[in-house]
What we know:
Radius of gyration: 19 Å
Order of helices and strands: EEEHHH
Helix content: 10-25%
Number of helices: 3
Strand content: 5-15%
Structural class: alpha+beta
Number of strands: 3
Shape: globular
Amino acid sequence: MSNGRTSYVCLACRISYKQPYDRARQRTCPRCAGPMLHAGSAFAAPRRQDLAAWRTLTVLLNAGVGFHKSCCGGPGYRPRTPREVRERMAYARRSGTPVAEALVRCDPPWQGPAGRSAGRTRTRTRGPGLSGA
């Protein structure tokens, strides 16, 4: 039987530790003595040098989005790039949707940056040397 270990993250140091879960106890970072945020048991930390991934993670954790296992095995969709976060934040502002809810939507209905709506698809053109027959 597992001992209920879960991830805690220090955003300032860009590190994470697996520790036993205790709701009443606030974890502190062993490197900077700052507070650590509870990320969840399904959390996988990005590489320390990947600043874009850590910026994305900062937005997610500060919005209250965690990486907890569900009955289906995983935490569900989470944005991975700052661009995906910006698009979802803009959608939340326009629609009045709570930020945490907009961040975890897999495919929210918004107008993309290239002017394409969610319902339209790009048509594929044939290159030279390919015949249509």
